[in-house]
Amino acid sequence: MKLRAGQQLVSAVDTTKMIVVRAPGEEVTVTCAGVAMHEPTSAAPTGVEADPSQLGGVVLGKRYADDALGIELLCAKAGSGTVAVNGTPLEIQGAKALPASD
Amino acid sequence: MNLTMLLDMAADGFGDRIIVGDREAGLTAERLRGLAIGAARTVLDRGADAIVHLEVNGPAFPVAMFAAAYAGVPLVPVNYRLGTDQLTLLLAGHPGAYRIGGDGGVEAGEFLRAADTATGEPPDPLDPAAPAVLIYTSGTTSAPKGVVLRHENLVSYVLGSVEFAAAGADEAALMSVPPYHIAAVSNVLTNLYAGRRLLTLHSFDPREWLRLVRDQRVTNAMVVPTMLARIMDDPDLDRAVPTLRALAYGGAKMPPRVIEKALSEWPHVDFVNAYGLTETSSTVAVLGPEDHREAFSSADPLVRARLNSAGTVLPTVELEIRDEEGVVVPAGVAGRIFIRGDQVAGEYAGVGSTVDARGFFDTRDAGRLDADGYLYVEGRIDDTIIRGAENIAPAEIEDVLLRHPHVADACVVGLPDEEWGQRLAAVVVPVPGGEVDPDEVRAYVRDRLRSSKTPDTITCWPDLPRTPTGKILRHSVVNGLTSTP
């Protein structure tokens, strides 16, 4: 899937919802618990099951990224699955020193 | 990418934390969500196509903002101080709106009670490209225009500048600008997302502000420069603010005298100067706490000058300075400020998008970058005075006037002149107990600039006409100078 900033991705197998903060140039496959994530407006895939080896979970409000790929996702709803891109789990990011003004 | 997503995250993440109002009686994040959904039901039942907020700041404002988001209609915060003619004209543009406040509107308390008793499921999520907020510009240089801010613009700003749930449970922010100002809108969102309780002060008074900071153990606050000036200038105030950690300011030029006094009186406070426009969903450049301390303590005039800058642009924003032909100019050269980024809306109601082919928005502000990327904002392009063949930015002269030890406030305008086209007229407000000798002040400016930039006249007034959010009303200054018998 070709991602765009602001896009929402939901899990087919748990409550996970991710927001695309930084989108890579090329097409990628984003999975949650091993199952492809989809946009809330499109139909969820049927007959799929969570991969028991990919249940690391994601934490609400945390950013998940792969700098080499240039992708960053924000967790808007926590879930039990591991979020991976092209088969590689994304890394949780530490709190950023953001230049907050308010 | 909808404002309701931010509220859902807050309610899921820290639902029982008090997020709006008093530290004991305020609203929790979960309660705010419940009220917003209830209010959305009420608004939809009336078939309204917008929520007009014509009230002072208070708990009804965040409820109205998220209610509008759940209902899929824009929130239109309107200046409750507008004259009858202007207000009638503006409200005529929203005949189908649900209105909070004003004659014929629902009173804020009644709005909250209706929200509390309404029942039903939240409406379906809506298109992130839908308008979330419509803010009318103050119209200091032209007729008020409705600035359209879409959900995606505001959410981009929040995600790009705030870490979710990063605030400690003891943190509280005090907002003193009125709800029809972009900073009041963005503060509702950023403080909620950070998990910081938001308090409002609807009629600014320095004594009341200081009392609230102490009583409510305020840690973060936002003011416009005139407010900080009033806090710092009153010799009889107890300015102890032990809980205050961060003070953000913006919206107009900060006089060096005021920020320098604040830095020396409150060394424990992190000062942040934020530059942004309504059209850019608030802040696009920030002069941070370390920049303030470094500039304030530096002997290097170039570093020290940064205290008067707007800092550096956010990593999520791109900025260009262009000349009159549209060519990007190098560091050190002044021109027109253009901005690009997901938070930049650049769109007006009835007009559409005004961004250029490359996605940049023309701020109509003059400015320059220094070699290290610090942005110096030199006022509105529309305020430029043309004296002879020379373009003169009033801000440059005002900056010098404001450094004069006896000048508290200053404004430079162009008046019609047969010989020069325009001549330079300055109005200055003396500091309390200070005296201004016009000839001496003119000599002070001439020593620092040059004679063509020295005001032809200097007039003393007890006050400058400003909007409640601190912007100088230059037309009123011109009228005041030309109508004097």
Automatic annotation (TrEMBL), chain A:
Highest taxon listed in the record's lineage: Bacteria
This protein's name: Uncharacterized protein
Organism: Actinocorallia aurantiaca
Lineage summary: Bacteria, Bacillati, Actinomycetota, Actinomycetes, Streptosporangiales
TrEMBL record, chain B:
AMP-dependent synthetase/ligase domain residues: 119-348
AMP-binding enzyme C-terminal domain sequence ranges: 396-471
Keywords attached to this entry: Ligase
Keyword Ligase: yes
Recorded superkingdom: Bacteria
InterPro entries named in the record: AMP-bd_C (IPR025110), AMP-bd_C_sf (IPR045851), AMP-binding_CS (IPR020845), AMP-dep_synth/lig_dom (IPR000873), ANL_N_sf (IPR042099)
Family, similarity comment: Belongs to the ATP-dependent AMP-binding enzyme family.
Protein name (Swiss-Prot/TrEMBL): Acyl-CoA synthetase (AMP-forming)/AMP-acid ligase II
